[in-house]
Amino acid sequence: MHLRMHLQFFAGEKTERATPKKKLDQRKKGKVAKSQDVNTAFLLLFVFTILVVFGNSIKNTMTSLFEHTFTEFIHWEVTENTVHQVFSGATVEAAKMLAPVMVIAIIAGLASNFLQIGFLFTTEPLKFDLKKIDPIQGAKRIFSIRALVELLKSFFKILFIGVVTFTVIWIYKDEMMMLSFKDTESALAFFSRITTIMGISATFTLLFLSVFDYVYQRYDYEKNLKMSKQDVKDEYKNIEGDPLIKSKIKEKQRQMAARRMMSEVPNADVVITNPTHFAIAIRYDEEKATAPYVVAKGLDQTALRIKKIAKAHRVITVENKPLARALYGSIEIGDVIPEEFYKAVAEILAYVYRLEKKV
């Protein structure tokens, strides 16, 4: 009993790598290995790149908008039409400024996901599931090992990115202290440049950390998908079918094929026998084939059944040991007689036709 319990324990232990089918099933549910840090790093990198490229244009648009507001709009009379015109115009200008950033952000999000998991569209994660709002399950997630790992990851991200950004500020601290002696445009240009440097530096730091996060996510994903030996066996049974059921199906198929074969024996012209081990039922029909063909064949007990049916339907049986053995091993049911056996089979059929004429 103890041995059986041990075997059951080891059979239930998840030690096997997930099968391709299980991975595909999980993928259809939206459960894949991906790092959100990769998405964030790509998003920041693309956005800061677009800000560098279009930053001057955005600045000019904003400056123009403010100048227009304080030189022209401020003198307008406040009416429904003027308010609508001001807000609609400001909205259009803001859309022009933000459009490149929004488009590149969408592209970055799609690209980072595609690089990690390829193309995947599923609505499974959106379906309502009571387990997601189960307080017990929620508490387990909060106090799980994975939650602790995520906390440590967040701490290290803050630490590394904080060190990088502080280093950038420290490098430019002297120039920053002298900003009080510069004009507004120079100060804004300085802060714009420093912000871009800090952003890109932090982005590359996050991108570096995201590599380790992705490796961890892959490891954790594979670990959670592991299967027990019994799981693998059950999945194989579901795919291939239970071996016992499959054997029964095959046996049924053999029985049906045997019945169909036996139903053709009465239509045979002759049965060639061994005489005890082999039986080959042959028919010649010019409309169906250009040569005689086999309608049934059998070994031992099947051969005896073929001979009994032949006898009951007055189909002539001819004993020819070498021919019966050769035909059984070289031809299947429904096939025409091979050319090398034409002469021997023709002689037997001629003999059978003579007997039938005498009768």
Automatic annotation (TrEMBL):
Its main location: membrane. Pfam families: Bac_export_2. SUPFAM superfamilies: EscU C-terminal domain-like. It is found in: Cell membrane. It is a multi-pass membrane protein. The chain crosses the membrane at residues 38-58, 97-122, 154-172, 192-216. Keywords: Bacterial flagellum biogenesis, Bacterial flagellum protein export, Cell membrane, Cell projection, Cilium, Flagellum, Membrane, Protein transport, Transmembrane, Transmembrane helix, Transport. It comes from the Bacteria. InterPro entries: FlhB, T3SS_substrate_exporter, T3SS_substrate_exporter_C. Belongs to the type III secretion exporter family. Required for formation of the rod structure in the basal body of the flagellar apparatus. Together with FliI and FliH, may constitute the export apparatus of flagellin. This is Flagellar biosynthetic protein FlhB. It comes from Virgibacillus tibetensis.
